[in-house]
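Hi C.,

You asked whether I'd gotten around to modeling the 524-residue construct. I have! Everything is below, sequence then structure, no commentary in between.
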Amino acid sequence: MSPDPGTAATTVPALRAVAERVRRAPDAEAVRSADEAADYRTLWERSAQVAARLAQLGAVPGTAVGVHLERSVDLVVTLVGLLRSGCVAVPLDVGYPPERLRFMCADAGVELVVGHQGPLDRLGGFSTVVTDGEVGYATAGPARPVPDPAPAFEAPEVAGDDIAYVVYTSGSTGRPKGVRYAHRNLANLVAWQSEASECGPGDRTLQFAPASFDVTYQEVLPTLGEGGTVVCCHEDERLDPQLLWDLVERERVNRLFVPFVMIQSLALFADDATPETHPLREILTSGEQVQCTAAIRAMFTRLPDCRLVNQWGTTETHVATWYRLPADVAGWVDLPSIGTPITGTDVRVCDADGRPVPDGEVGELWITGAAVGPGYLGLPERTARSYRTDPLDPAVPAYRSGDLGRVTPDGLLEFLGREDTQVKVRGFRIELGEIESLLCSDPSVAQAVVVVSGAAAEDRSLRAFLVPKSAPEDSSAWSAGLLADLRDRLPAYMVPVRADVVGSLPRTPSGKVDRLALATGSAA
């Protein structure tokens, strides 16, 4: 029997507002794609079916379950179903190379994956044992019998310290890191985002982020808790700014969470944008330094009802600070602040010894409080280095971001870039050491350095410099072969667009590789 929306309830902290919307407005549209739509009642029923199917296949609260789905109603339903089940979601991007996906599954202990059949067939090592419509459930190893029938859904108790999901980021040692995020962290983010947003009941949010990015939860859960509609886009719409504008107009989208480079691209195609045809109220961005160019200012001048919101944080904390730019575009500075901490969270500017510095001085940004997750998966030493306690209160968790910043005279935080070789390119967080480690694993490579070239966000790209162990007969063919090998092992955004063969690498006076000289082309 289908659950009665009038009695919808959940112990999952981040879903309580969603359950209330199911009870109050079950027939309102919750999620739609080009192919289908689902109201709140249907979303709740289908998510319960997902949770029941997982239990049928042996999953219990705390079980790691892979999510290998395209943007779709199925994806939103599955994310909600996993939260309700108490299982730990491990997003597996359908665009990642199989080798990386297999590592993630092994590292997280994933033996059960929910996915669309095409991506599941490419995943390797898993056998589909049951399907519900276009969604398949695959288990590790050979197919095994499935108990029949599926049990009725029984909501487990979900506590705030239980893990909600694990997402993988680039690793400085060549090993991607699984970042754990707890239900209490997610609940705090969702409640804050809903409170801070300009959007509410009936407003429509685009589901733009890949499933492997934590931003997906920020798009989906606040929207459903607010009584809005999640609109799923196709990959071609996501990559083409003109198609994205067309989608905003056609689907009456009110809110976008997009990387800054997409804001720049949208600005180049915004000549026909008007409040009547493109009813955007918020564009939120994170991941890169926002630059208020003339084109971006012109776009927001054409859309006076739309606000630009700059958010900052790390995968380990999701959003830590935010800054809503003034409605009057004329008051924008070229490089806007990252603002102030979100609810339950604080940011300390600390020296190298972890001591807070006076306002105005530059230091490392330490994030403390409710945004800080429980640490990396299976990496206790790395967790101990990065996850600390608040310098002002040892009872409060903290995370060393590796970003530099300072408090300005108006009390806002200013972001001043990375402290190490971890970079962000086109909204993707990358640790260059992972790429360098893979390049150096080739026996013909003596040294490899990867840098970011290009000053403007839209021009930033990865560039590799390679020192061969012995001079290759054809340098171009040799470097091209190494990049081709990377494409089979890394996501596309982590593959350098160019590889230069050099006899040696420039050094700083201290003996380190002079990355700045390589990035700027000033190496002798």
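If it helps when you're writing up: The chain has three domains: 5-232, 282-418, 422-520.

Thanks,
B.
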